[in-house]
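Why should sequence recovery work at all? Because a backbone constrains its sequence more than one might expect. Tight turns favour small or flexible residues, buried strands favour hydrophobic ones, and helices have their own preferences. The token representation captures these environments compactly. In the example below, the structure is given first.
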């Protein structure tokens, strides 16, 4: 029995050693595969950056920094300046945030804190469905939203706020205001969905503690819930901002596509994504193509800077919430 017992223990050790080695090799293979995927994304981003930078080399060498500061866009004489497109992109995206953030936050608070149980699931499903579908915004914006803004939204703004430069001048429907409104409609679903998830992640004892101290329902949301979820809400807003900056076809069809800088929201404008979509096929000369590629390169840089700024601000918020110093 001692001999067989010794042999059995030896066989068990051999089996355990084989199993541990197989697990180790399996973990190593899994680590290599997922590491390849991760570094593949980094390599792809580097290649996109390199290709855009190389393609815009002729424009960079020809115009230099004046490409960012001049507003002349003349394909006939091959004089190009991207300032109107940068202006249109930033202003339309900020306008979309001004409109969308209150609606998104209200939707998120209602669905997570106030809505009856029977309404939460169907309303959440509809919001997520709107976030996933975008094609219908294009023709809807041209045939329904633009006339609505021209006939019903612009007149009262011009009547009561016409003393401001933002609401002066004629309104033809296709304008910066219409572009901002359709961008707001497009980013409301994704911003409200992520904000709702951030609010739902707030621990229940936060609410219970506020209620136990005598807070009302609104005071509980304002004091105990929103401050705890502010980093997630801020991330949702930044994600919506990036979504608005990168939008192409919907805003192209309603913003007017005019390379002019105007203080009025009633005037037509242009965005970086729109000019690429409209004119890249028609570009004939090498300098024209290189200028459009440089606009794409600028759009990539703007997106990267926005994400970096968002990361820094969220990191500072998390440090403050964790008790550290900002």
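From this structural description, the recovered sequence reads:
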């Amino acid at each position: 029995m001692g001999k067989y017992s010794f042999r059995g223990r030896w066989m068990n050790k051999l089996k355990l050693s084989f199993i541990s080695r197989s697990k180790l090799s399996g973990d190593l293979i899994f680590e290599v595969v997922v590491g390849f995927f991760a570094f593949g994304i980094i390599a792809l981003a580097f290649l996109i950056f390199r290709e855009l930078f190389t393609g815009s080399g002729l424009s960079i060498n020809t115009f230099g920094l004046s490409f960012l500061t001049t507003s002349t866009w003349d394909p006939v004489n091959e004089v190009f300046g991207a300032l109107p497109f940068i202006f249109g992109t930033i202003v339309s995206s900020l306008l979309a945030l001004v409109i969308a953030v209150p609606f998104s936050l209200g939707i998120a608070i209602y669905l997570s804190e106030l809505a009856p149980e029977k309404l939460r699931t169907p309303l959440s499903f509809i919001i997520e469905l709107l976030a996933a579908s975008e094609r219908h915004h294009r023709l809807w914006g041209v045939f329904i939203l633009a006339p609505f803004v021209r006939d019903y939204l612009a007149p009262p703004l011009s009547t009561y706020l016409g003393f401001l430069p933002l609401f002066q001048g004629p309104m033809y429907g296709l304008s910066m205001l219409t572009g901002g409104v359709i961008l707001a409609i497009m980013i409301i679903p994704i911003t409200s969905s992520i904000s709702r998830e951030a609010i739902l992640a707030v621990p229940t004892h936060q609410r219970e503690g506020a209620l136990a101290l005598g807070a009302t329902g609104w005071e509980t949301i304002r004091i105990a819930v929103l401050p705890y979820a502010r980093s997630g809400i801020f991330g949702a807003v930044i994600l919506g901002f990036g979504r608005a900056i990168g939008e192409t076809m919907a805003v192209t069809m309603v913003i007017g596509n005019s390379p002019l800088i105007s203080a009025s929201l009633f005037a037509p404008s242009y965005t970086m994504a729109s000019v690429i979509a409209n004119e890249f096929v028609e570009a004939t000369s090498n300098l024209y193509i290189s200028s459009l590629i440089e606009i794409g390169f600028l759009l990539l840089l703007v997106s990267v800077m926005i994400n970096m700024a968002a990361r820094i601000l969220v990191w500072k918020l998390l440090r403050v919430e964790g008790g550290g110093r900002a």
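A few observations help interpret the result. The mean pLDDT is 83.
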